[in-house]
From TrEMBL, chain B:
Pfam families: FecCD. This is Iron ABC transporter. GO terms for molecular function: transmembrane transporter activity. It is found in: Cell membrane. It comes from Streptomyces venezuelae. Keywords: Cell membrane, Membrane, Transmembrane, Transmembrane helix, Transport. Its main location: membrane. GO terms for biological process: siderophore-iron import into cell.
């Protein structure tokens, strides 16, 4: 009997050894698999980014070249794009088409960024600046300054940001209830407040003079028709600053995705990071809106597309080029598409985006995150 | 709507009628409000006309004079049109709220009016439609198509609760519809400007449509009046209503048809005006409770008071020119919408 006992203990020990070995192996294997997945994810993200950049370049070229460049010598087009020609080439390419294409690209990037930030933060694909009324607030602010104080330098951009911040504050305050903010209440309150802003812009449209009507029209349906180099530089600056802020916030965003408790444990100042994210997202949407008007549904669809392409972790960064592709593509289509052109860019993004939105609310599983 | 769990104890067939005294008070109050806004709308405006002069003009319809012209050709038709359209929108809102059991339902919020507008634009562009009569049939088609679309999408959403799903579906459909309008008219600057003006609902210069709009609106209102009992039964839930002998699908369809008819008549006459139905429906229910035999007529009165009141206020808030009635109703209606959206029982996850 004692022998058997020893034997049994032996066997148990060796078994334990074996299970420890397997556990270690398993751990190592899992870690390796995770690393591989991470690497694969990074490779995939890189690949997708490269493809998007190529598409963007192609769209840029198309946007500059399409439509009656025959009277401009082919050799003049590239120099003209950088402002190194005079006369017709300079006027058509440098003064009209380049700013338009770049404004579409940059505004799309900003809409994509702000949408992805809000979707990430609220963890709901519906919580985007145009759904919760931020774009409408920015439009109302920008239109007011444009009509009544057009001479103020950077007036429209600043008023756009002002309007957006006021609106985001109002929406957050009004949708807070019982200590928490409910996404759906957020969206409903946003829909209500955007109705007021839209009514106000509608009203401005009817009191605006002949000159002002074209300006207000842009805020009723977003368009990059009258884009200028000033607008482009505003957008570029905005993208640089907001992009930098997003990069700085990236780690906090990542840890907040794990839930507030874990994020606090990881040393993230959740409250401050959340407010910072809200402000960066609102500023990005507001600046884009102040230059192009509300180009609807771009911020809504960029984020989910990015998630689908590369997964949640890298989606915020990828939403930027995706938004740019959407708006620039919609603008090329709006200018040169068969039958329909020319139309304001915002019409096309709404026509493409709203059905996607419907699909989103029909298909979304409860609790799914973007 | 809650249903009684035990079959042995069915819920009361209809909510109790408000006490007679309260009913009288509400009726008198509603009549007074209606009279007040009517008098204000006829008496107040950009041109100051003294009350005595107004009484004199009203007593002598044939009398000459500029003031008489202003009154007979502009203010009085405008006021009557406002009363009719307001009543139609109010009833439409209440019926939609009752049928969908959704406190946020309303022809403007659900995008039904935008759908009506798209069809009116299509009619103007391709069928040479003109006048309210032509607009009406297009608006009716558009309202019906949009209502079906929004309802189909809204009831199939996964957005937490059907209340929110319906609103989100309405927002999406409205966005598509207004993009379609822009797409259709954008190439002609003049038409674009004109339609932009039409698509901001207002009563300015619509007085001449009164005669054309009245038949449709009145038909809708008369058809709506007997719906109260059916709506009461439907609000008990499908099972109970069926048990009480209601053909639920047919009753729903009839109610929806009347709501769409009312919405189309209003939209064809003055363009889309949101939030009147929302506020009127809730105001009526707050005043007399959930019995639709009472709240339905009252929602008409509330809608009329709200629309004419908003229109009159819009004429007075700025010195030169005026604020369109749809802008005014948005400013009045939005706080109400937000207040409803904040209610605890609205957002169910």
């Amino acid at each position: 009997m004692p022998q058997t006992h020893v034997q049994r203990a032996d066997r148990a020990r060796s078994l334990g050894q074996a299970s420890q070995d397997t556990a270690a192996e398993l751990k190592a294997a899992t870690a390796a698999r995770l690393r591989a997945a991470h690497r694969a994810g990074r490779r995939r993200a890189r690949l997708v980014t490269c493809v998007l950049v190529l598409v963007l370049l192609a769209l840029l070229v198309a946007s500059v070249l399409l439509g009656g460049v025959r009277r401009i010598p082919a050799g003049d087009i590239l120099p003209a794009a950088f402002g190194m020609r005079t006369g017709l080439a300079d006027y058509v390419i440098f003064r009209i088409r380049m700013p338009r294409a770049l404004a579409a690209l940059l505004a799309g990037a900003l809409f994509g960024l702000s949408g992805a930030l809000y979707q990430r933060l609220v963890r709901n694909p519906l919580a985007t600046p145009d759904m919760i009324g931020i774009s409408a607030g920015a439009g109302a602010g920008a239109t007011t300054v444009l009509l009544f104080a057009p001479a103020v330098p950077f007036g429209t951009s600043l008023a756009g940001i002002g309007g957006a911040f006021v609106l985001v504050a109002a929406v957050l305050a009004l949708s807070r209830r019982g200590g928490g903010v409910d996404t759906y209440r957020l969206v409903l309150v946003g829909i209500g407040l955007s109705a007021v802003c839209t009514a106000y812009v509608n009203y401005l449209f009817t009191v605006a003079g002949q000159h002002g009507i074209a300006q207000v029209m842009r805020w009723l349906v977003g368009s990059v028709n009258d884009a200028t180099w000033e607008g482009v530089s505003t957008l570029a600056g905005a993208l640089a600053v907001c992009g930098l802020c997003t990069a700085l916030l990236g780690r906090s965003l990542g840890s907040m995705a794990l839930g507030d408790q874990l994020a606090l444990g990881l040393g993230t100042r959740v409250g401050a990071a959340r407010i910072a994210t809200l402000l960066v997202g609102a500023a990005a949407a507001a600046l884009a809106t102040s230059v192009t008007g509300p180009i609807g549904f771009v911020s809504l669809i960029s984020g989910p597309i990015a998630v689908r392409l590369v997964g949640t972790d890298r989606s915020v960064a990828l939403a930027v080029p995706i938004g740019a592709v959407i708006v620039l593509g919609a603008d090329v289509l709006a200018q040169h598409g068969p039958v329909i052109s020319p139309v304001p860019t915002g019409v096309l993004t709404a026509l493409l985006g709203a059905p996607y939105f419907v699909w989103l609310i029909l298909r979304r599983r409860q609790g799914a995150t973007p | 709507m809650k249903q009684s769990a035990s079959p042995a104890a069915p819920p009361a067939p209809v909510p109790a009628r408000p006490r007679a005294s309260r009913g009288t008070v509400v009726v008198v109050l509603a009549g007074l409000m209606l009279a007040a806004v009517t008098i204000a709308s006829i008496g107040l405006g950009a041109r100051d006309i003294s009350p005595l002069e107004i009484v004199r003009i009203l007593l002598h319809p044939g009398a000459e004079g500029y003031n008489g012209d202003v009154l007979w050709t502009e203010r009085i038709p405008r006021t009557l049109l406002g009363l009719t359209v307001g009543a139609a929108l109010g009833a439409s809102g209440l019926i939609m709220q009752a049928l969908t059991m959704n406190p946020l339902a309303e022809p403007g919020v659900l995008g039904v009016q935008q759908g009506a507008a798209v069809f009116v634009v299509l009619g103007i562009l391709f069928l040479d439609t003109s006048g309210v009569q032509g607009y009406f049939w297009m608006a009716l088609t558009g309202s019906a198509v949009t209502a079906v679309l929004v309802f189909l999408i809204g009831t199939r959403t996964n957005a937490g609760s059907s209340t929110i799903g319906l609103v989100l579906a309405g927002v999406a459909v409205a966005a598509v519809m207004s993009s379609l309008i822009t797409l259709l008219v954008v190439r002609d600057e003049a038409v674009y400007a004109h339609l932009r003006f039409w698509s901001v609902g207002q009563l300015t210069g619509r007085g001449q449509f009164l005669g054309q709009a009245i038949p449709f609106a009145l038909t809708g209102l008369l058809l709506a009046l007997p719906l109260g009992r059916t709506l009461n039964l439907l609000s008990l839930g499908d099972e109970t209503a069926r048990g009480l002998g209601v053909r639920v699908e047919r009753a729903r369809l009839a109610g929806a048809a009347v709501a769409v008819l009312l919405c189309a008549a209003a939209t064809a006459a003055v363009g889309p005006v949101a939030f009147v139905g929302l506020v009127a429906g809730h105001a009526a229910r707050m005043l007399v409770g959930t019995d639709h035999r009472w709240s339905l007529p009252l929602s008409m009165v509330c809608g009329a008071v709200l629309l004419v009141g908003a229109d009159t206020a819009g004429r007075l808030v700025i010195d030169h020119g005026e604020v369109q009635v749809s802008v005014m109703t948005a400013f009045v209606g939005t706080p109400f919408f937000v207040w409803l959206a904040r209610r605890r029982d609205l957002v169910r996850m």
